Amino acid sequence: MKICSLLAGALAAFLFAGCATAQTAATKNIVLIAGKPSHGPGAHEFRAGSLLLQKCLSGVPGVNVTVYSNGWPNVANALDKADAVVIYADGGGGHPAVQGNHKSVLDALAKKGVGLGFMHYGVEVLATNGGPEFKEWIGGHYDHQFSCNPMWSPDYQKFPKHPVANGVKPFSNKDEWYFNMRWRDDTKGLTPILTATPSDDVRDGPYVYPRGPYPHIVAASGREETMMWTYERADGGRGFGFTGGHTHANWGNPNQLKVVLNALLWLAKAPVPANGVESLVSPEDLQQNLDPKKK
């Protein structure tokens, strides 16, 4: 039996015994939309990553996680009962959220109080197509050549008092951690979760694309940056952005895993355990459901 399943089962027993609210509350439905395959083996493994997150939450009482692979669901009414929708996919002009009527669908969900989250490339939309909506839904977005995407190792040492940070310990891993988001003007409700200060070498590039450096990124030397954040909308709805997740193997980092699992529960307004979601994945878990890709 995999470690993820063992710990999820232990968490389920703990919550069942000690949390009457979780037993009696209505089931929270979390929908993960995994994008189409892209990049080489071990990168942008949206389907495998989403299925792994689903597995790690499978033992949490009162929570149901559904994964739709290969982009926007082709199932009628797939999002109707969702309490939270998270898109982990390629973004930019091809973002699933901006195709067809999808912005209208997501905006209607947000107005009903449904939580919206976006991960890795999924935090990037065009400033003129999706940008205004992302600022309303999650407080900000990656803006091409305003934001940047170097491969680096942020040193996450401190965390806010927030349910998404429950139980998260200092960690660092090398990934394509984006920073310098395009934030909304009114930052009330925004909470940085993962923050670190890039070195001047990181600011000088190269970035993944375009290689840079960008003068405004270099000029901000010494400034702390935000790589994950939450947003509480004025209407009570919630959102989050997580810029990591390029490298599939990093889901094996217990603290990266925990902060995202916590975020999924928080987004759906499900209780987050005081010590966070306790779940680890094995090397075998990380090899499951990978997209078939050429090396």
Architecture overview:
The protein has 295 residues and is α/β, with parallel strands linked by helices. The protein has a single domain, classed as Class I glutamine amidotransferase (GATase) domain (Rossmann fold, 3-Layer(aba) Sandwich). The chain is 26% helix and 17% strand. It has nine helices and eleven strands. It has helices at 3-18, 20-24, 46-56, 102-111, 131-137, 200-203, 215-219, 254-267, 283-286, and strands at 28-34, 63-68, 84-88, 115-119, 140-141, 151-152, 175-176, 182-183, 190-196, 225-232, 238-242. It has a seven-stranded mixed beta sheet. Strands 5-8 form a two-stranded antiparallel sheet. A two-stranded antiparallel ribbon has the order 6-7. Helix 3 (46-56) links the parallel strand 1 (28-34) and strand 2. The longest helix has 16 residues, at 3-18.
Key terms for this structure?
single chain; 295 residues; alpha/beta; Rossmann fold
Quick summary:
The chain has 295 residues and is α/β, with parallel strands linked by helices.
Write the layout of secondary structure elements.
Layout: H1 3-18, H2 20-24, E1 28-34, H3 46-56, E2 63-68, E3 84-88, H4 102-111, E4 115-119, H5 131-137, E5 140-141, E6 151-152, E7 175-176, E8 182-183, E9 190-196, H6 200-203, H7 215-219, E10 225-232, E11 238-242, H8 254-267, H9 283-286
Parallel strand pairs: 1-2, 1-3, 3-4, 4-11
Antiparallel strand pairs: 5-8, 6-7, 9-10, 10-11
